[in-house]
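INTERNAL AUDIT FORM
Audit reference: QA-55
Scope: verify that the stored structure record matches its stored sequence.
Auditor: D.O.
Record contents follow.
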Amino acid sequence: MSKRHNAIFDDLLRDMDDPAPAAEKGGTRFLKRSNALADSGTREEKVLRWVDPASCVMWERHNRAYDLLNETNCRELIDSIRAQGQQEFPAIVRRRSGEGAEYEVICGARRHFAISWLRANNYPQFRYLVEVRDLTDEEAFRLADIENRDRADLSDYERARDYARALDLYYGGKQKAMAARLEVSEAWLSRYLYLARLPEVVVRAWPQITDLKELHARTLRPLLSDAGDRVLAEATAIAAEQDRGRAGQGASVPVPRVLARLKAATAPAAKVAAPSAKLRVRERGREVTLQFDRDIDEPTLRAELDRFLAERFG
């Protein structure tokens, strides 16, 4: 995490209420001394708990698509936890009210998956390390964003969807206020919000949502503006191919090919004119191509060219 994001993270934590008491059963004392507190000798205590991952569910507004996590894309984390003998960094959770799971996960979906996978695959001794916090929804959103903003394993589209939801939920639809709260530029936030608002059929044209990047949205923006109907029609055709690929009924369309096809869809349809059967004229945009049979004789070709020039320029 960058120094700037560390600073944001620390500011956010200082704004939050004190965590659960250290005497909570099963808790482990964790002391954090900040510069501001050091002068008075005051200690800020946090409580970490080892819990069964089954006692936790993802926060419904979590910014990661948990259903896309699997053994393959979590392999490195699984192997690291197994080698260390335990989870090293706690997930951040808050208590749930009502029946069912005791906690909801704000940050730590991949750690939750990794521990759950290990317990289900002959390592029942592993437990999920969590830090219980008292957070509002807006604080939970900002905390999750700060933790994941620099992580390559959270896709641009997942992050963009999270921003789009948060804009209305926490900031009254005011993009400027949200950008200030997140300490990002309005232009940066605007690009992610545009990504989140791409038509559904365009999103489905990608092999997976995790393949869809903010840079792709910048490429698509002028295409959708200039030739939206043609782009959407081609996206619909690609999405059908991707659906067949996901169902094991064919190969998926790779991202470079998706982009190439969507760009090609914006080209105007070729216009074909034929002054005669011997000389064919094809127009595409600003280009004109003349075609004729290889065995045509010179006098005939000259006559056909004269005919073409006369009709074209009068």
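Auditor finding: record pair retrieved intact. The two ends are 69 Å apart (CA to CA).
Action required: none
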